[in-house]
Amino acid sequence: MIGLGKNFTKPYQSKFAVDYRGRVVHDSRRMALDAKPRSRSRESQQGVQSSIQIADQYRKQLVKLINEMNHSIDYWLTAKFKKTENQRELINPTLAFDTAAEELQKALNQLKKRWNSKFNQMAIELARYFSRSVASRSDIELKKILKKGGMSVEFKMTAPMREALSAIVHENVQLIKSIPQEYLGRIEQATMRSVAAGRDLHQLYQDIQKTYQLTKKRAELIARDQNFKATGQLQKVRFQELGIEEAIWRHSHAGREPRPSHVKNDGQRYKVSTGWFDPEVKQHITPGFLINCRCYSVPVLP
């Protein structure tokens, strides 16, 4: 089991409840709340923003795996490259290229098999921890917000929430698995270019380090972006279960390059069921849907 640190949010805990009218809204999914109604709709003063802590813990776990992989590649591949470099000095250039390319390809195939397998094994466990942590924290924060608005709720796991969590896990598993595939693909190309061009070990080392830095940046983006997306998706499910039909779009004002349409839409109402139509991408979206979107929603309480 992966240790995500003592400060990492605990996995999702479910509780049983019914809606505020004492009825089940839909038998197949079991309504997830017990709330007291208000006489009229009004805007909540707060919305659930994604947790920086969860994103950071997710990032650290991904970078830890990447560090281990890069150290392994750096050690074994450079050792094999140095060996073939010495051999190239003893035989003619044509045979030297063929021999070096063949030996390095064998070494790369073994490394790819090892690290693809390790990432595949860790992907499901890490994705589940991440998704459950986002769900747990999201429910806790939403419960606080609703309480301030006069609604007392107890959340539990429902079919729609289970489906949403399953989709989040699946997407993150695929992203985690893609990390070694993309990294090792770049390393393989750099290695064969070095052999074909007769470059020395120093150039290959620089290529490995460049690829390593790019891979870490991608892992950071995955952790940050998926945190925004998961929070937005789970909030939408809870809003619909609560009977909240409208929400207020809030811009975080935190990004370096904010989307003009999102800034303009700050404070505007939108339908929870359909989302807001973003004129820039020409489709209906919800907060966090677009890559690196830090926007969040504030529920309009029934």
Largest sheet: 4 strands, antiparallel
Q: What low-confidence regions span 5 or more consecutive residues with pLDDT below 50? A: 1-40
Percent helix among the residues? 55-70%
Q: In DSSP terms, counting alpha (H) and pi (I) runs of 4 or more, how many helices?
A: 5
Structural class, by secondary structure, is alpha+beta
Reading the helices and strands in chain order gives EHHHHEHEEEE
What would the average pLDDT be, to the nearest integer? Answer: 83
How many beta strands in the DSSP annotation?
Answer: 6
- Radius of gyration, Cα only, in angstroms? 25 Å
Strand content: 5-15%
Task: Kindly report the spatial arrangement of strands forming the biggest sheet.
Answer: 1-6-2-3
Question: How far from one another are the termini?
Answer: 42 Å
What is the overall silhouette?
elongated
